[in-house]
Amino acid sequence: MLSLFVSPSLFLFHIDLIKLRSLFMLVQVALPVPLYRVFDYSLPSDISALPNASPNNSSIQLPQIGSRVEVSFGRQTLIGIVVAHIAQADTSVPLNKLKPINKCLDAESILDNSLLKLAYWLARYYHYPLGEVLAVILPTLVRQGKPLDLLITHWRILPHITDDDFRTNAKKQKQQFDMLKLHGQHGASEDVLLLEGMERAFLKTLEDKGLIERYIQPKQAPTSVKLAKMPLDLNEEQQLAVAAIVAAHESKCYTGFLLNGITGSGKTEVYLQAMQAVLEAGKQVLILVPEIGLTPQTRARFASRFAAHIVLLHSGMNNTHRLQGWQDCRTGHAQIIIGTRSAVLYPFADLGLIVVDEAHDGSYKQQDTLRYHAADVALYRGFQAKIPVVLGTATPSLEHLKLVDEGKLVECQLSTRPGNAKPAPMQLIDARLQSTHQQTQDDGARYDTGLTDALIGAIRQTLEAGDQVLIFLNRRGYAPVLLCEACGWQADCPRCDAHLTVHYNNQAQRSNYSSNSYLKCHHCDWQAYIPTVCPDCGSQNLDAKGMGTTRLSENLHAIFANPQTSKALYPIIQIDRDTTRRKDSWENIYQRINAGNPAILVGTQMVAKGHHFPNVTLVCLPNADRGFLSADFRSPEHTAQLMIQVAGRAGRGDKSGRVLIQTLQPDNALLLKLVKDGYLSFARELLQERKMMGLPPHSHAALIRCEGKTLAATTQALKDAIAVLPTGHNLAVLGPIDAPMSKKNSRYHAQLLLLAKDRQQLHHVLNHWWQPVLTLPSAKYLKLTLDIDPVGW
Ligand code: ADP
Ligand code: ZN
Ligand code: ZN
Fold this sequence. Notes:
Blueprint: H1 8-22, E1 26-30, E2 39-41, E3 68-73, E4 76-86, E5 103-104, H2 113-126, H3 130-137, H4 140-143, E6 153-157, H5 171-181, E7 188-189, H6 190-195, H7 200-208, E8 212-216, E9 226-227, H8 236-250, E10 255-261, H9 267-280, E11 284-288, H10 295-305, E12 306-307, E13 310-313, H11 319-331, E14 336-339, E15 351-357, H12 374-385, E16 388-393, H13 398-405, E17 410-414, E18 426-430, E19 436-440, E20 446-452, H14 453-464, E21 468-472, E22 481-484, E23 501-503, E24 518-520, E25 527-528, E26 542-545, H15 549-560, E27 572-575, H16 585-594, E28 600-603, E29 616-621, H17 635-647, E30 658-663, H18 669-677, H19 679-693, E31 700-708, H20 711-723, E32 732-744, E33 747-756, H21 759-774, E34 783-788
Bound molecules: adenosine-5'-diphosphate and zinc ion (2 copies).
One zinc ion (ZN) is lined by residues 493, 495-496, 498, 521, 523-524, 526.
């Protein structure tokens, strides 16, 4: 409403605003709410809330598309992104009833057109609300409305201030003033100053006294990338791959490559040399890696080749660093960006190449909220930006192999290792024919080590030759089950359909009530003491069954590091989440391994990826083949990938290596195929099988999961969902059935699977069906989620 006391100039200004309003200028805002729509808002009544508003500028700028605005939404105040300017409201709400924007937070768009397009694509493809897609894309501080240049606040002493101007008895103030003085006329960034021990409160005090000022230093334009080290001479296959990628880059067109190279074949060298051309053209390169544990090592490799501004993006960063990284990518300051999954959603000023390393890796699929697959998003972004995308792997996923067959990916093969290194041959040990080695405990009792004599012999031989051994066991803890021998009781998680894992460091600790001795659920982290008697029958005959990495280490210790039984003593290095929890523990482990002395490494899948252990010449898999028997149809694929990755750790130095697989099912056809013919023919056979069964990638899947307090309610909601499927839909509908672990964390899960011959069909049904399903009466108190291209069920 017009105040009676407006000044004339403000009055004129107001007329302008009215004129503008009469053009029906409204904005549509995407808000972080679980609703599949955007919201209309009018312009703010308070003119100063508009961007670029200044009293002598009569042309009022609308908040830009892609900028942040603060709005009222119900009783909440939310921050959203402007996605459109419109002339008329979509809704039937009369214009004067539309709420105005409270505040514009950015004078300019913070999301460029391509990132907005990406958001729209993600929303469509994954059937996820646009506002929530944007909430996933934006770093927390951006979502909270913080200014983007918040971070590069600098402080300096005002030019005219001398020591004479600052005479004080306040010692601390003087000390802080002197600290800043050391930085000279330009001062330093707040980050740096705080690190040096300056305190924010004092900076503020000195500012209030008119002695120092804060300012924003524009980031220097990055200098051009320089080669810090000469590239290696490529072998023929590497040359072909680099040439193909560089040609795609130069012709400015999208090409997806599958760089299919056996472990240790020099894929990274191909990335590096392809990158060189892209970086020299002044463009940015994004490298996605599966795991944060790998990033320091990977970073070192890229940093030693290029003198460039390298930015690391991973889930361990704090919010400030994340925003800084985001800004660096957006402004073009970052030249090489190495990141885990979510880096594929960052804004880039001028991206020229995307590399997805270990593209088959399961960690590229996000398993909650927006369930995207980073390799798929990478391909989309490459297509959008007209740049090459390289998916590198030794064990391509069946999806990617099918894309090669369809001509949608160009395959480049690397079939040899450079130099003398040869891929280690794989050999089976039939654990049914050989008894496993028995060991005698201090008290005389015998126990089973779970290792055949053949395996133990090979380990000893390797150690005596001065080499290292890697034993892979994908199960941490001491044992997966605690069993009562008298009545069959097992320690189960009260909140999940799962056994509790036994944790203690060795047998001697088993009945200690110590912090090292406990039962734990690996799904919900529930913990309990280890009972001394069976809670059901009172028997003391409780036994840890099966083997985790701790128990395996203990058994190996008894054989290879016990002065009573072994002449030479070899260190056993256990590598799993329990032993690498502390910050510096990886460092220590690396140092011990890199010292190069004979040792046995025992590890979970943490050791499978990327690591380079040059002295490992023997890799043992005592029971990795279990996955071939699992109910999940993807399990053989994933098991084989993991086995090949682990096997790839053998013989990476100058010495050749070998791989021993101890198995109870030596005539399993899939296992034999993998061992005899290698991963590719194994994968081809699986692909054929999937085709016959109509399973992905020969069909397209959407998995609907329903979570609630009872299984009955979740199943009923899914039944109701089936009932509202459009008639004549042509999809295969499987379920509802209980989810694989239907009770988890005291919540129940049921699921429903939709399979379609072609993708269009699936999306067509989902477009009409999914939103109504969310509003089904029976779904009211349940959590329904949709997973497009699920990786397992
Ligand atoms: P991948 O990424 O395929 O597992 P890497 O890139 O780690 O393989 O290469 C394995 C080893 O081979 C590295 O030590 C690397 O420096 C070396 N290498 C790669 N390409 C060449 C080459 N053309 N000539 C000599 N050594 C090479
Ligand atoms: Zn019992
Ligand atoms: Zn649990």
